[in-house]
Amino acid sequence: MPVFVRLSLTLLPLFIFASFKNSGAETIKIAIPSTTQAVLPFTIARDKGYYRAEGLDVELILMSAPTASRALLSDDVAVATVGGAGLPPVLRGSPFKFLFTTYNRAMFWLFSKPEIRDVRGLKGKRIGVSGIGSGPDSLLREILRQNGLDANRDVTVLSLGVMPTIFAGLQAGTVDAAMLSPPVTFKAEEAGFRELVSFPKQDLVELQGSVLVRDASLQSNRMQMERFLRGTYKGFLHVKEDRAATIPFLARYLQLNERLAANAYDQVVRPAMTPDGTLSPEMQAKAVQHVLKRLDLKEAPPLAKIFDFSLTRKIMGELKGWRSAP
Predict the structure, then answer these.
(1) Alpha-carbon distance 40 to 18, whole Å?
(2) Are the C-beta atoms of 188 and 167 separated by less than 8 Å?
(3) pLDDT digit string (tens) for 213-256?
(4) Distance (Å, rounded) from C-alpha 311 to C-alpha 303?
(5) CATH number of the domain at 3-105+205-318, please?
(6) Is the sign of the CA dihedral 118, 120, 125, 128 positive or negative?
(7) Are 100 and 211 in contact (CB under 8 A)?
């Protein structure tokens, strides 16, 4: 049974993004790993009609990042919008490429019980992440390594799923610390949990809100990918350049009031965005490096086999001066 079909049986309540049906439009299935700020360009592109303008009926389907990679490999989805979680399968030989990325800075924080004073204090403790092999899991393992801890021996890393469940695990004492993202971070602060690490301040490159596709799709249906990227890039520009119009979207997706949504935009979303949806070769290498260490691989494939920003750069030139409609 295809991955997508299996998921539809088990995760039906999570399929919260209805597509806009457009007569004659080409349907394209897109995996998204969360309903957070990470996927803002895609949800805004859908809601504002940027995909429909490209003749696409885009279905945004919620599934975990590791599952999204498997669905992409089995051709059950055309695009996975995963970031750092897409690198392990690529480094292990999956025929994928990154075409675009919204963010290059990690929008995660490591919170713990108040009595744990620093990262070294996590030895022997349980730490919650969304999933083993996810972007937050990779970040956690790197910061543990930097502090002399081995994630496989010195701590217990637990896969807890979506962000509210992770926070509930921290509150209930199921875990002693957790990798959290906004708006749950605001609740963690209010509840008195200790911020151990702010990953946006770390010298790490973490991709989020990316476009990961199969090499075969890029070769056989390049025009479809270009149309999807054009709609996505308009969503990206909307987020990057129109603060006032983006904040209500952010408030709705994160279930925040507009004051907190504005804080999230100013402190988290906007600073973490890439300048133009692409990465320099230096940033590409840095994004790959810490994942390479975690996987204990000696050598990565050439960067050209992992990243291809040529379509994004083409679209960037075409949309120079473009502004979102009010």
Answers:
(1) 15
(2) yes
(3) 999 999 999 999 999 999 999 999 999 999 999 999 999 888 88
(4) 16
(5) 3.40.190.10
(6) positive
(7) yes
Predicted pLDDT of residue 23: 53
Task: Look up residue 91 and give its two tokens.
Answer: 């480094």
Give residue limits of the domains in the chain: 3-105+205-318, 109-201
Please report the pLDDT score of residue 169 as a whole number: 97
Tokens of 325: 């409609």
Three-point CA angle 157, 286, 72, nearest 5°: 65
Closest by CA position to 64, among listed 94, 95, 35: 35
Nearest Cα to 137, choosing from 176, 103, 178?
178
Residue 325's nearest CA partner among 49, 56, 91 is 49
17, 43 in Cβ contact below 8 A? yes
Is there a common fold for 3-105+205-318 and 109-201? yes
How far apart CA 2 and CA 67 sit, in angstroms, is 12
CA-wise closest residue to 236 among 249, 254, 252, 223: 249
pLDDT digits (tens, 9 = 90+) for 148-185: 999 999 999 999 988 889 999 999 999 999 999 887 89
The CATH number that domain 109-201 falls under is 3.40.190.10
- C-alpha span between 86 and 53 (Å, rounded): 28
Whole-angstrom Cα distance, residue 218 to residue 97?
9
Q: Is 260 left (phi over 0), alpha (psi -120 to 50) or beta?
A: alpha
Question: Quick one: which H or E segment has residue 194?
Answer: strand 194-198
Q: Is pLDDT above 90 for 129?
A: yes
User: Which residues fall within 8 angstroms of residue 309, CB to CB, at 6 or more apart?
Assistant: 98, 99, 100, 277, 278, 279
Rounded to 5 degrees, what are φ and ψ at 271? Answer: -65, -25
Examine residue 183 and say whether the peptide bond preceding it is cis (omega within 30 degrees of 0). Answer: yes
